[in-house]
Design a protein that fits this description.
- By secondary structure, the protein is α+β, with helices and mostly antiparallel strands.
- The protein has helices spanning 3-6, 9-18, 23-37, 40-49, 61-79, 88-97, 100-105, 134-141, and strands spanning 113-117, 123-125, 128-132, 152-153.
- The protein has two domains: 1-55, no CATH class; 62-166, Nonspecific Lipid-transfer Protein, Chain A.
- It has eight helices and four strands; from the N terminus they run αααααααβββαβ.
- Strands 2-1-3-4 form a four-stranded mixed sheet.
- Helix 6 (88-97) runs parallel beside helix 8.
Length: 166
């Protein structure tokens, strides 16, 4: 979560080239390196000390920055089974901002699937319904696989595709 405001654009580019152009590979390597070299208190301090940094992901603007913080924050809270609730106005903005290009970037294929939020009036796609909270569905749109039991099919006999659960 702190990579964007800790590394210059040239360093970012060098890391990306070293990862053969894969942003996912690059960020995974950086996160593992940080986790191995920094104590938990130091990692927390990086986030705290830069909480008001005006960083924006390249070509994504303020909505991209919000998505970055919300999605990575949910990555943490879902893993810890923490009851964090993202405010509805932010969820709606992010759910509605996801494009087909974004889905492809994160490796998401919704062919034959209709995501339906249980806690908001929101859905996306066509096909067999898959229900969950809006914030869980946001994670699906960003390519996350959720723990079993977080999503459920919406009709008799329907089930959650295995590509959506860990």
């Amino acid at each position: 979560m702190s990579l964007g405001f800790r590394h210059s654009l040239p360093r970012f580019a060098v890391e990306l080239v070293a990862a053969r152009g894969s942003l996912h590979r690059m960020t995974d390597r950086a996160a593992r390196r940080d986790a191995a070299s920094l104590a938990p208190a130091e990692l927390a301090a990086l986030l705290r000390d830069h909480a008001h940094h005006p960083w924006k992901p390249p070509a994504a603007g303020p909505t991209g920055a919000l998505a970055h913080d919300v999605v990575h924050g949910l990555d943490i809270t879902i893993a810890l089974d923490h009851p964090r609730r993202v405010p509805e106005d932010r969820l709606r903005l992010l759910l509605d901002a996801v494009t087909l290009r974004g889905l492809r970037f994160f490796g998401v294929d919704l062919t034959g699937i209709r995501l339906v939020a249980d806690d908001l009036d929101w859905s996306r796609g066509t096909g067999s319904p898959v229900h969950g909270t809006a914030q869980e569905l946001l994670l699906v749109l960003f390519g996350r696989r959720l723990p079993a039991g977080r999503l459920h099919g919406g009709t008799e006999g329907s089930r959650v595709p295995p590509t959506l659960v860990a």
